[in-house]
Design brief:
single chain, 326 residues, alpha/beta, Rossmann fold, Alpha-Beta Plaits, four-stranded antiparallel beta sheet, 12 helices
């Protein structure tokens, strides 16, 4: 991974290693499911390697069946890999490591006869929190996820969006250092999505690490530092999201009356040809070259058409290119 975004607030002593040590390190992970009478193998994940650094939000995206859930379940110790190694906070998975992880599954289920408050008390006790701690933590946490007014309602009466937010609350309850979130904004209305994204950003700002699976690319662009794209069990694209904003810091200039002579007259300027057909061309230049290029064009026998910011490759474009037809 190229992009680094460590926060000084992150506590390396609490995390059990140096600041630069990966929070997640998966090496050559392979998972084969056996099926049928002949026990033929289906590779859900094949030779997959991932590194996630502290205090970053990393998106894990891909089509259904690409291997995202298999990877997450293996990362949580809920699925035994066929081959490969997994380390979290620099050590193999064990009970102590798992207590430092908060997990929200794609479809969160809880006991329908519990109220929201009782459900969080149950999950809090499983993490080892005391009754006194929980009595202090739960009201503020329910308020944080927008469920303060539903604290005493049975979860059986909750909408899908409310249940999702309760799932996020149980993931946050024990203040984990690593959050693994599987489709956290699925089923939420716009207000609920905004609330969840703000929580993710604030957790990252506190020095927490977020590993996020989502199909909503706009959410990823708003919250994450890096993106990993998986197709047929293998990583096919890994990049910092800052690259996409850098690509768009250019301008498009449409030129009518384009000729070889015009092109030669512009040879010393910083631009590239996006399109060139008959007597029309579209030039792309850095923002700092825009003024000089326009000035030079006005001195030439051409007509300047549309002048607009250049739309570089978006996250959606890259997704469709690498995994959209999987």
């Amino acid at each position: 991974m190229k992009h680094e975004n460590p926060f000084s607030i992150y506590d390396p002593h609490k995390s059990g290693g140096p600041l630069s040590a990966p929070v997640i390190e998966i090496r050559n992970l392979t998972k084969v499911y056996r099926r049928g009478l002949r026990r033929t193998g289906l590779h859900a994940v094949q030779d997959l390697s991932i590194t996630v650094k502290p205090a970053t939000a990393v998106a894990f995206v891909g089509p259904n069946g690409a291997g995202k859930t298999t990877t997450i379940l293996a990362l949580l110790g809920l699925l035994k890999p066929t081959a490969g190694t997994i380390q979290v906070f620099g050590t193999p998975l064990d009970t102590a490591v798992l207590r430092r992880i908060g997990y929200q599954p794609e479809i969160f289920h809880t006991y329908p006869f519990y109220t929201a408050q009782e459900a969080l008390q149950y999950y809090g006790r499983l993490t080892g929190l005391t009754a006194v701690s929980l009595s202090q933590l739960i009201p503020s946490l329910l308020d944080r996820v927008g469920l303060a007014d539903a604290a005493d309602r049975k979860t059986a009466t909750f909408s899908k969006g409310m249940t999702q937010r309760l799932g996020l609350a149980q993931a946050l309850l024990h203040d984990p250092e690593l959050l693994i979130l599987d489709e956290p904004t699925s089923g939420l209305d716009p207000e609920g999505r905004r609330l969840v994204l703000e929580i993710i950003r604030s957790e990252k700002a506190r020095g927490r690490t977020v590993f996020l699976s989502s199909h909503i690319l706009s959410d990823i662009e708003r919250t994450c530092d890096e993106v990993l794209m998986i197709r047929q069990g293998q990583i096919v694209f890994a990049e910092s999201l800052s690259v996409f904003s850098e690509m768009s810091a250019e301008w498009e200039i449409e030129v009518l009356g384009w000729t070889t002579s015009v092109k030669e007259n512009l040879g010393s300027l910083n631009f590239r040809l996006l399109q060139e057909a008959q007597d029309r061309a579209v030039l792309v230049c850095p923002v700092e070259s825009k003024r000089e290029l326009l000035r030079r064009l006005t001195d030439l026998p051409v007509e300047i058409g549309t002048v607009q910011p250049h739309r570089g490759s978006s996250l959606e474009d890259v997704y469709m290119k690498h995994v959209g037809r999987a």
